[in-house]
Each structure stands twice: as structure tokens, then as C-alpha cells.
Design a protein that fits this description.
Length: 427
């Protein structure tokens, strides 16, 4: 039987790295309402429609470098051919195949339309025609976890680190990784024996007793035991406080999406590299609330004020339950405290300048954190002189640090601080 071989041209879908494409879609998948900063976040997600996903994929294909120039030329063909309708149809088919593949691999899922389903069951309409409304999608936990991993990898690469170990301190303990000379075994040490030192001690003891090691059996006694030393590894409890007030997406800059990306990266770092540490997330706005880490990527800002004291109070209560060597708050914000919860539960608000009453109560909560042994590191995304003075006062009270950064460098500051600062904590 004769075989005829032809050149394999492949499928354009096979040339697309789906994980790279998902990374380039992170601004859409982690969107915080920046596309409509004056809208109500509870009224709907204009950037969670299939059309928005379609447009983002289209931009990534041509502007994001997902497809090579040769692949783009193959897809669109030559303009002189005149068959541009066929090229457009091929492009639409490719985008639909990409969306189907993203759903198949669990990065996105169609959002259920409960209202339409209810109308169908009641027999009052709810069809799938032009008036049915835009089809929406939801970001899955797998996609958020993947984006956290990619953000962590990119951030560590940008600061010259390919991997991260556990938190180093100046204390030595008897662990598994040997980094110092062995020491005599003491009760309570990890029985990580150093064989050569232990045998050497036994031989020296036998020589001291006048016994020959050539004929006598070498018996290891309790005083001969030597154990290897490793660095003591501390544990840390962290609460990351995210400001989700309206100013985080105003003034022509989206500051909240980079903050969420950093929070996801920090969560992935702790889960994979520091399993003994803990991380909790607190949103502060008119009030404050703890949210599950898996919901970080889905959080959106709203028309809120900034109740910094309530966020610090909730974070302090969460950390006081943790029995860790170190406890810290990582606060990411761009605005001044402008709200306060009164004892009766009412919210006092004043967005005009630094209200002395709000500021004094916030400083009182910072002092409470300092008394509880909790450090506050503030990452400020603004440069207003009054805010700079406020943040520096917070750092002085609790002996923390104040970083004045931008959405573009925020991740480097947060991760470097988390991995490097702890060598100076336990002495």
C-alpha cells in the first residue's frame, strides 16, 4: 500500500497558549468596575458579558502577541483577495473556539440567568431572542488561582527571585536542613542526628577509656549524640486590608485591580511556600467585612467612604485569635479616613479633608494594634501631603512601615516586604 504525505499546517487554535491568553485577560477577569466608575456595582456587570470577553480576546490576539505575525496573516489572508467576509468569519469561529476551550478547561463558566429561567417556568416569556439581554460569564476559582500564580511568578521575576523559602530568623533550631555546625543533643531537640560527629565522639570516648576500636564494638552512648542545626523558621499571621472605596477607581486610574492581583499573589505565595503562615482578607469601606480568600478576585468597589478604623478593628480581632510568632496587617489604600462607626452603629461620614474626630479615633485603634503586638505596614497609592503625614504617623505609632507606591510597583513592595522583613523580627 502506498501512502501519500502532505504538509501539516495545523490549526490556529493549537498555536495559542491558552494560559498565556488567560494571563493577558486578567484585567477583564479581575475587573473592579473601572469601565463604569460612576455606576452602581450591584446593578450589573457590563464587563462580565460574553461580548466583553469576545472583544478582550480579539484585542489579545492582535495587540497582545498571542498570535504570531504569520498566524495573523494566515487568518486574515491578503487584502487583495477581496474575500474579507470569509476572513471575518474565520476570526469569529476562532474566538468562539477559544471561548469554548476556556470553558472546557474550567477558566470561565456561563452565568446562570435566574430571572429568565423563572419567567420560562412561569410561562411568561424569557426567551433567547434579541430582547433577552446580554449573555454573561463567571470567573471560576481555577482561573483566580491561576492568575494568582502567574502574578506571583511575574512579581518574583521582576525583583530577581525565582523561588522563595520560609521566613529566616537569627535563631537556630534542630531541623532537617543543616546550615550550622552540629551540637550535642539535648532533651527536646529534634532527633536529626549527625552520624559522623556522633561516631567520632564515641570513638574518642573509647580511646579515652583505653579500649581499642579495632577489636571492640563501637557503642554509642547518650553523651555521644550530636544533632544537626538548622535555622529557626518563624510563623506569621497576616491580614491584608483592601480599601474598596470609590476613589480606588476614580481619577482616571484603576487602583483596585492591581491591589486584588497582589492579594491573590500573596495568597498563592503563603499557600505554596509558607504553609505554616495564615492569611485573611478584610475589605474596608463604609464599614468593614472579612471575605474568603477565594472571593478576592470577584470583589468590586462601590460608592463608599473609607472607614479605616473599622477595618483595623476587625483585622486586630482576627489576629488576636492567631497564635503565631508574628502578626501583621498589610493595608492597601489610596485615601484618607472619611468614615467612622459610632457606638450606636451609625456611620459618621465626612469626605472634606482630614476630620479631626475620625483621625483621632483611627489613631486610637492603631495604638490598640500596637499594644496587641500587631505591626501595620501601609501601602499608600496617593501622594497628598496630608495623607503622607497621616500614614507616617500610623507607622510611627505601631513601629511599622509606610510605602508610597503606585499600582505598577505595588506588588514588588508588598512581596519584598513580606519575604525580607522577618529576618529582623525575632532575635
Amino acid at each position: 500500500m502506498k501512502y501519500r504525505y502532505t504538509k501539516y499546517t495545523g490549526d490556529l487554535l493549537d498555536q495559542i497558549d491558552l494560559e498565556d491568553l488567560v494571563s493577558k485577560l486578567s484585567d477583564l477577569l479581575l475587573s473592579s468596575g473601572f469601565s463604569n466608575p460612576w455606576g452602581d456595582p450591584s446593578s450589573g456587570d457590563e464587563d462580565r458579558t460574553m461580548q466583553a470577553l469576545h472583544d478582550a480576546i480579539l484585542e489579545a490576539l492582535f495587540s497582545g502577541g498571542v498570535l504570531s505575525e504569520e498566524a495573523v496573516q494566515e487568518l486574515l489572508g491578503e487584502p487583495a483577495d477581496g474575500d474579507q467576509e470569509k476572513a471575518r468569519q474565520q476570526l469569529e469561529d476562532l474566538i468562539q473556539q477559544i471561548i469554548d476551550k476556556m470553558m472546557e478547561q474550567g477558566f470561565v463558566t456561563p452565568s446562570p440567568d435566574l430571572e429568565r429561567e423563572r419567567e420560562q417556568r412561569q410561562g411568561t416569556g424569557g426567551g433567547y431572542g434579541e430582547d433577552a439581554g446580554p449573555v454573561k460569564f463567571e470567573v471560576t476559582d481555577k482561573a483566580l488561582d491561576f492568575l494568582g500564580y502567574r502574578a506571583l511568578r511575574d512579581l518574583l521575576g521582576s525583583i530577581g527571585r525565582s523561588s522563595a523559602g520560609r521566613h529566616d530568623t537569627r535563631h537556630l533550631s534542630t531541623g532537617v536542613e543543616t546550615i550550622a555546625a552540629p551540637k550535642p543533643y539535648e532533651f527536646g531537640d529534634t532527633l536529626n542526628l549527625d552520624p559522623s560527629s556522633t561516631i567520632l565522639n564515641a570513638v574518642q570516648r573509647l580511646h579515652g577509656e583505653g579500649k581499642s576500636t579495632q577489636t571492640a564494638t563501637i557503642d554509642v552512648d547518650y553523651p555521644d549524640l550530636m544533632v544537626a542545626q538548622s535555622e529557626y523558621q518563624s510563623s506569621c499571621a497576616t491580614v491584608i486590608m483592601l480599601d474598596c472605596s470609590h476613589s480606588m477607581i476614580l481619577y482616571g486610574e484603576d487602583r483596585f485591580t492591581p491591589a486584588k492581583r497582589v492579594a491573590l499573589a500573596l495568597s498563592h505565595l503563603i499557600r505554596t511556600q509558607y504553609p505554616g503562615d495564615s492569611l485573611q482578607a478584610v475589605l474596608f469601606h463604609d464599614s468593614a467585612e472579612e471575605i474568603p480568600l477565594k472571593q478576592l478576585g470577584r470583589v468590586r468597589v462601590g460608592p463608599y467612604y473609607t472607614n479605616t478604623r473599622e477595618g483595623l478593628r476587625l483585622a486586630r480581632r482576627l489576629l488576636e485569635r492567631q497564635k503565631k510568632d508574628m502578626r501583621q496587617i498589610v493595608m492597601i489604600t489610596d485615601g484618607k479616613p472619611s468614615a467612622l462607626t459610632r457606638p450606636d452603629g451609625q456611620i459618621y461620614k465626612n469626605a472634606f479633608g482630614l476630620d479631626p474626630f475620625i483621625v483621632s479615633e483611627t489613631f486610637a485603634e492603631v495604638s490598640a494594634c500596637q499594644k496587641a503586638g500587631i505591626m501595620i505596614n501601609t501601602f499608600m497609592l496617593a501622594r497628598d501631603p496630608d495623607l503622607v503625614a497621616f500614614v507616617r504617623r500610623v507607622a510611627a505609632i505601631c513601629r511599622g512601615k509606610a510605602y508610597f507606591t503606585t499600582p505598577y510597583t505595588l506588588g514588588q513592595y508588598v512581596l519584598m516586604d513580606y519575604m525580607d522583613r522577618k529576618t529582623k523580627t525575632i532575635h
